[in-house]
């Protein structure tokens, strides 16, 4: 996956480079154009960042690569926006057919697009539109892996026991970036505190005394 930022542009391409790039748009030009250049990334002028072609250095040369799809962060933001709008039908275009979705509140993952959509339809039918996901932080550096910190709000006020974090893995499928794996971890309503450490210590002691128990984990 490519991560493309204007901040990586350190020099302006020469006139000859611009001419070569301009000629690459003609029907007779090859789909991939290699040009010797020192920059790691150079934009083709006059095109938007979201729907554009960029060049990336590969082994001392520059290759034109197509980026006509949303970044991973954009897909994930759109995913939350659709859920907040209770527009579950549109969510299907953001997840792959074989997506695996793990919500750690449930005993097993949801497998496949249809099963995931059914889960979110139950969620949206059971909750008011006044209950909204709010993104606190979201990673943007890797379009194939996106992490999100979020919480729920009711009419703009924090909802109790609703803090969470999620991870999304994305792939480009048929020219469209989609979610292929997701995991949600939600704040527990009951917080055992130090008791959790005691439980972990007890289980560890049992495993040390009876190693065969590890086969049952």
UniProtKB/TrEMBL annotation:
Pfam families per record: NTF2
Classification via SUPFAM superfamilies: NTF2-like
Membrane-traversing stretches: none
Domain of life, source organism: Eukaryota
Domain Nuclear transport factor: 72-178
Protein's UniProt name: Nuclear transport factor 2 domain-containing protein
Organism: Lupinus luteus (European yellow lupine)
